[in-house]
Amino acid sequence: MTNLQESCDACPLIERRTFVRDASLAVAGILAALGVPGRRARAMAIRFGGPLASRGEEHSYPIPSTDGATIDRDNQVIVVRYDQKAYAFNLSCPHQNTALHWQPEDNQFQCPKHHSRYRPDGIFISGRATRSMDRFGLRREGDTMVVDVDKYYRQDENAAEWAAAFLTL
Length: 169
Fold this sequence. Notes:
Elements: H1 3-9, H2 16-34, E1 45-48, E2 53-55, E3 58-62, E4 68-72, E5 77-82, E6 85-90, E7 101-103, E8 108-110, E9 117-118, E10 124-126, E11 135-141, E12 144-153, H3 159-164, E13 167-168
Parallel strand pairs: 1-4
Antiparallel strand pairs: 2-3, 3-12, 4-5, 5-6, 6-13, 7-8, 8-9, 9-10, 11-12
C-alpha cells in the first residue's frame, strides 16, 4: 500500500445523502445569516374586505400594517402593502378585464384567463397583457388611505401619474 492509500483508509466515509443534507443545511444557514429569505418566509397574506367608509367614488381603507393584499370585490379595488409602500389597483386584469387572483406560492397576481402575471407592486412580469396593473389615485388621511376610483391610471397612457400612485410608509 502506498502512503496515499493508507491516509485515505483512515478517512471517514460520508454517504451521499448525508453530504447533500449537510451541504443544504449549511447553505440555508448562510442565506438566513445574510438575510436572504426563502419563498415561504415571504409569502404575503391575502384578505377580503371592504372600505371603512365611502364618499362617492372615494373609499377609505386602513393602511395595512404588514405586507399583503386586501381585495374589495364590491368596489373592484385591491389594496396592497409591499416593500414599505401602499398601492391601490383595479381588480381587473388590464388585458381583458378578468378578475385577478393572488398566487401565494409565487407572491404575485395572475390572470386566470390568459395567465398574465404581476408583481405585488403591480408591475407586469409576463403573459398576454401589454402593461402593468392599473392603479388608482390615493392619499393618506391619518391611519387610513383614501382610494379615488375616479382617478384611474394606466401605465401606458399616464406613466408619470401611474408611477407616483403609491404611499410611502
